[in-house]
Amino acid sequence: MRIAGTVQDSIVDGPGFRFTVFTQGCSHHCPGCHNPQTHDPSGGTEHTVEELLERMRSNPLTDGLTLSGGEPFEQPEDCLLLAQGAHESGLNVWSYTGYLFEFLRDQGTEAQKALLREVDVLVDGPFLLDQRTLSLPWRGSRNQRVIDVPKSLENGDVVLFQL
Ligand code: SF4
Q1: pTM higher than 0.90, yes or no?
Q2: How many angstroms separate the alpha carbon of residue 39 from the centre of ligand 1?
């Protein structure tokens, strides 16, 4: 898969210590995006899922995997394997996306829907410059929701994540 990079021990991409994978490629092009270098799908570097899982598992203090970007849902097959690998290791899975939860659930491709079902918490929606905030945890703009995915899928409506 193509990635822009990884971070060990991130404390800003979800609760606890997180292994964050910044996927390469994003078609949303939100004005004011903080990671414009991740937009080009042919940029970044190529890595195997196994290599990334090995890197994630090398730190016993890691609490969870976070898929960020870029747009993780534009590489859904590989991100699904990463998420499954994290769950097999007892780690929780968070993902960022510029898509809305409802779009992925109802109109996503089969691969995107499969990835959504493997994610525990989804921070959804594009970054909107006029709603930019530094005061809300885990989000760059106020429109973005921190969603409990299993409860939302079960409920038929969005249930926000509570710590
Ligand atoms: S979805 Fe994220 S990575 Fe993509 S343009 Fe928007 S803020 Fe940037």
Answers
A1: yes
A2: 8
